[in-house]
Design goal:
mainly alpha
């Protein structure tokens, strides 16, 4: 129960950082936040640890937790590496994925589609995360899966944020379908390319993301 509450608090804190309630460099007062959320400090600290994994919070011994937003260059670099890691997962998965895992991907996609129709970006992201983790695992490379999952955690709040842009969920859904088709065909080059394009945040998408973060900070 506390673990689930910690997840909920982490998401709420992300929103408070994105909307400018807490700004870059600000210290997060654990006592006040525990009172605000009506919880003990244990689930709150777990939530802060989750945000530390994504790089949105820096935990400094004996000083506390501080908001830390990556700058545009660092964020672009992180997405650039993420796109290449996922592309590698897709290429390997196209050669190694099982029929059972393909069925799991289709099931995740069906739930993604239901979330698109319901305009529920949070439900979409939950299934989207499942979709990607299946591909990481089906790469058959444990080290690659581990490293990709680590960066996935760091970029989680930003990937979830961009799903709220107009039309992005439907676009993401179409990209998922193309990814599954490439994996079903065993086409490694196509799976690699579709995943790279799916994850990369470039051009207009990146400008929209940065503009939304800038507005939140103002």
């Amino acid at each position: 129960m506390e673990t689930r509450r910690a997840d909920q608090i982490a998401v709420q804190l992300e929103e408070l950082i994105f909307d400018g309630t807490f700004v870059d460099g600000q210290r997060l007062d654990e006592v006040r936040l525990a009172e605000h959320f009506g919880v003990s400090r244990t689930p709150l600290r777990e939530a802060l640890q989750r945000l530390a994994l994504s790089g949105m919070v820096e935990m400094i011994p004996r000083r506390g937790a501080f908001v830390q937003q990556p700058g545009p260059v660092q964020l672009m670099e992180m997405f650039e590496v993420m796109a290449e890691l996922e592309a590698a997962c897709g290429r390997l998965a196209a050669m190694r994925i099982t029929d059972s895992a393909l069925g799991d991907l289709r099931a995740a996609n069906a739930k993604c589609l239901a979330a698109v129709e319901a305009r529920d970006s949070d439900s979409y992201y939950a299934e989207n995360e499942r979709f990607h983790r299946i591909i990481y695992q089906q790469s058959g490379n444990g080290f690659l899966e581990q490293e990709t999952s680590k960066l996935h955690k760091r970029l989680k709040p930003f990937r979830r944020k961009q799903l709220r842009f107009r039309g992005r969920m439907a676009q993401s859904m179409a990209e998922h379908e193309a990814i599954v088709a490439a994996l079903e065909d065993g086409d490694a080059a196509r799976a690699e390319d579709t995943l790279r394009k799916h994850v990369a945040v470039q051009g207009e998408k990146f400008h929209i993301l940065m503009a939304s973060l800038k507005r939140a900070a103002e």
